[in-house]
Amino acid sequence: MKFMKLGSKPDAFQSGGADVRLVVSDLATDVIVHIGEVRFYLHKFPLLSKSSKLQKLVLKATEKGTDDVHIDDLPGGAKGFEICAKFCYGMVVTLSPHNVVAARCAAEYLGMTEEMDKGNLIFKIEVFINSSILRSWKDSIIVLQSTKALLPWSEELKVVGRCIDAIASKTSVDPANVSWSYSYNKKGVACTEIIEPAGKTSVAPKDWWVEDLCELDVDLYKRVMVAIKSKGRMSPDLIGEALKAYAVRWLPDSYDALVADDYMRRNQCLVETIIWLLPSDKSSGCSCRFLLKLLKVVILVGSGDHVKEELMRRISFQLHKASVKDLLLPAAEPSDGIHDVRLVHNLVQRFVARTALSHNGDFVEKSDEKMIELNFEQESTLALGELVDGYLSEVAADPDLEFSTFVELATAVPEAARPVHDGLYYAVDAYIKEHPNINKADKKKICGLIDVKKLSTDACVHATQNDRLPLRVVVQVLFFQQLRAGSSSAVPLTDGGENACAKPKRRRRG
User: Fold this and answer.
1) Domain 4-131 sits in which CATH superfamily?
2) Measured between alpha carbons, how far is 56 from 357 in angstroms, rounded to an integer?
3) Domains of the chain, residue spans
4) What's residue 205's pLDDT?
5) Three-state SS for 163?
6) What are phi and psi of 32, to 5 degrees?
7) What pairs with residue 5 in β-bridges?
8) CA nearest 478: which of 493, 392, 389, 393?
9) Is there a contact between 385 and 423 (Cβ–Cβ < 8 Å)?
């Protein structure tokens, strides 16, 4: 941390009570400056020689026959004023990243310019900011954090903008040239460790800057990230990593903390800012898991439809990379059940539509080529099929899950996504088990989703012993087993094969 000492005389300021500050001197004080509730007993000459504002205020007070000067709107308050007053007396005062903004704003208010006195306080502070603060990574962040309490002065004096630009510029430096200290709390590094690159032989990691920026409040963080992105030197993946770290730092994990009345608006602002800052490339930068976590927060804090729409559009580009757990999004209304299955259905439809367009493009370009290996779109479609079937098995336990909702999601997956129907079979079985009052027509319809010819041997064995299935389905499975056994053997069916066609002893699946 950088410091700057001004003045050479001993500090003669003392407290004369809870709200009284005075200068110990052989000369009697001749002016009382009121800064809010705090009174400063001072001398006119050192103050008036450096402050144009105090010149005017003291003149007015003298005309009224009083020694009291009242200032209620001084930026930086009593602490900022005391720094300015000590400077006027030539007393030792130490500027640091923690007080320099308060001192700068107070000096501006008091008119401590070069016109009043060469080498005045504004000049000294500007030298310190430009030559030390803005060259230091940590100090720039500390100063930027302190500016919020001093708005609009800190903004008008361009302290905020200069700090943001300095921080953004440093994040763009080649990691091999990082020569300042930074916090790095990733795996293998202690949570409180401060890395000193100058003493290291290894190059700083590409995301060395991410953790320190997490200390900024959301408004300042947004402005810094906009500045970083505008420089065009940061990859979407690093931007995504930074946003993920900020979300982990500030968004609570628990439902109660997210929706608490005192913090719900704050959490809504946080998540919407993070979404607004997402990389422009919708297919890269952030993992599907992270995007789905943001979507879950958006649902819980009640963000607008446009925010949800933006996330859903991004998720649809990489839905196949999600896990079943990622997709367990809470329903917006209790009447809709535990999970928002309709929203997942919407995501699946978007993914399928996008993949279909991509396939059409491949067909036009490669219609004369024999496709031997599965291309990326086909692989992602297969992954989607497994994901949806796993999700259906999970949400089937919801007693409020409507039959039509289950069927619509199951049929939203293209046929090519299910070369094997085992996952769909177990999902259907789970739904029937958890909804014992399903009528015969619906049971027939839901079982009709299963292509028994695409069941594995293990799934067939399970189905033949499953008394939750309609008898017609069991017979179809047995018939297919017989055909499969016949096609795999050149000899006629043995007694064992005939016995396999006999009505099995049916057991309920646990």
Assistant:
1) Potassium Channel Kv1.1; Chain A (3.30.710.10)
2) 74
3) 4-131, 320-366+374-441, 451-510
4) 87
5) helix
6) -115, 115
7) 94
8) 493
9) yes
